[in-house]
Design brief:
alpha/beta, Arc Repressor Mutant, subunit A, D-Maltodextrin-Binding Protein, domain 2, five-stranded mixed beta sheet, globular
Length: about 300
């Protein structure tokens, strides 16, 4: 067994296609298939369901795949640790972030890229629950998510600002007077919303219910892009975070603040406390602390 076999297996999981997995790994398809078959023979297990095309992983394959991801993450962490001992910071920073948060991840990634030009970034859009789980499994280095479910015993936390909300709309289809909107006004317009499992959606529903209001969204999606497309098409409006500049993406888009609208929990950057923890994660977390820590109060 070697690292390349594990990389081939993970690439197959990412692409769900033998040819695309081979292309991703810069090898021929026969080479990839042969190496995965060799791994199956060594483990004495069938990992992949085969037909005319890739048909998924067996139950054993899913379990081995989880270990493969853990081992590959440990391998990458070892390489990053060795580079750190040489005074370098190289590797792939795996960052998970909740969608629709009033924090621009580029304010973190750009300074890191400028300071460490050999660093690479992998940014994933996930729910808070997925981020916490992936941090625990060492599938992510850092996570940007809501803090209501984060246990300080397991994670180091850098608290960021609260996420406040505005209503995004296309002025060709909807018109609102200047100034703040009430939740009562927001509840009367067709809304597109994130999926029910997302914290941002749950915060909106909680605020509406606190005022005795209920809504039935005309569209639900786990994709911010799809919500934006629906707003531009005039299908709906959408509650979005303030200060992320979505209204600047198109001349017809506009936003109105919503009175008293904020998520139930603040956003934070998190890193797991338990070892193994890569030097890459530690260095980037330390840089974030320098960039975003609030100055001490004089009180």
């Amino acid at each position: 067994m070697d690292i390349k076999q594990l990389k081939f297996l993970i690439a197959l999981d990412q692409t769900r296609h033998f040819g695309k997995a081979a292309e991703l790994c810069h090898v021929t398809q026969p080479t990839l298939s042969t190496r995965i078959s060799g791994l199956e023979e060594e483990l004495e297990l069938q990992l992949v369901k085969r037909g005319h095309r890739f048909e998924g992983f067996t139950e054993a394959g899913e379990r081995i795949l989880a270990w493969a991801k853990t081992l590959l993450a440990a391998h990458d962490g070892l390489q990053a640790e060795a580079a750190n001992c040489r005074g370098q910071l190289v590797g792939n920073l795996r960052l998970g972030m909740v969608p629709l948060a009033s924090f621009d991840p580029m304010t973190l990634l750009k300074p890191l890229a400028e300071r460490y030009p050999e660093l690479r970034f992998e940014l994933s859009s996930l729910s808070s629950e997925q981020i916490l789980d992936d941090l625990q499994r060492n599938h992510l280095d850092l996570g940007l998510c809501y803090l209501d479910q984060a246990d300080p015993a397991h994670f180091e936390v850098l608290q960021l600002s609260d996420t406040t909300m505005e209503l995004l709309f296309d002025s060709r289809y909807f018109q609102f007077a200047p100034g703040e909107l009430s939740w009562s006004e927001v509840s009367t317009v067709p809304l597109g919303m994130l999926s029910k499992t997302m914290h941002f959606r749950q915060s909106i529903v909680a605020m509406l219910r606190s005022q005795g209001l209920e809504i039935q969204p005309v569209m639900e999606s786990d994709s911010t892009l799809f919500l934006m497309q629906a707003v531009k098409a005039g299908i709906c409006c959408a509650v979005m975070p303030q200060h992320i500049g979505m209204e600047n993406l198109n001349a017809d888009l506009d936003m109105r603040p919503i009175a008293g609208a904020a998520t139930e929990s603040p956003l934070g950057l998190m890193m797991r406390r338990s070892e193994p923890r890569s030097a890459l994660a530690q260095k980037c977390f330390e840089q974030a602390q320098v960039l975003f820590s609030r100055p001490p109060s004089n009180d």
